Amino acid sequence: MPTIPTAFADVTASDSTLRRFLHGLPGVDAVGLEARAAGLGTRSIKTTAKAYAIDLAISMIDLTTLEGADTPGKVRALAAKAVHPDPTDRTTPSTAAVCVYPDMAAIAAEALKGSGVKVASVATAFPAGRAALDVKLADTRDAVAAGADEIDMVIDRGAFLSGRYLKVFEEIRAVKEAAGPARLKVIFETGELSTYDNIRRASWLGMIAGADFIKTSTGKVAVNATPANTLLMLEAVRDYRAQTGIQIGVKPAGGIRTSKDAIKFLVLVNETVGADWLDNHWFRFGASSLLNDLLLQRQKLATGRYSGPDYVTVD
User: DSSP states of 67-118 as a string?
Assistant: First the structure.
């Protein structure tokens, strides 16, 4: 099993000690949090900084297809786009990863071989997470065996919301062990957690249990990543590193569609946790359509005009 940081060994000894710790975290000032997030979103970006931010955002994308109609051909096309987002301009950075269902991980791995682009795979009965633990662990092992470099798991929101924190903790630990060398992103589905206090508790629970990344959402519910919930998670990873020395990544996912949105999130990162997280090893965007707008804005900066509608592929 993954090692629990020494500072939290007693905290995770029982359901009651874990509950006491999580409910002892400072309450979230919702008005203050949202005002802070909104204020940072108004920062103006100069042209040179904007060009840097667009390339950085492209390099942070987990280019994603998670549809029942996914085919090997669609996954191969997405992989090609991830490696060379703009075939007419090879200075365009590759995306960080391609994110697919476990049964498509082998297709993605073959298509991305030698490119440096990672294969991310959702697992653990994504997106609902309603399956027995042995099924979730088999799902995880299958994805890693097929070539996944990263596993995006969903927590059992029912267990979390009913206060069974130790069950969620132990499940994350078991999936982390099953993932072996793959990095683990733990998805909270913040839109279903209802309160900012719950998002803070989930963030700490995930980090203590061994998450390499904490992730907002599956992209399959009405409310996904927002500046406020992402800011709250950034504050959590900042405070966790200050306490343990362990750095954890953050991945907002769902609903981030424009360059303007992406840059707002990068400002949040820079102003909250600093340059250490301004790298795709520590910050990702879970997105599909975002890349298209980033490419259009990149072309606009380079040429002074927008390209035609056929400049980018439609995902």
Answer: -TT--HHHHHHHHHHHH-S-TT-TTSPPPSEEEE-GGGHHHHHHHHTTS-PE
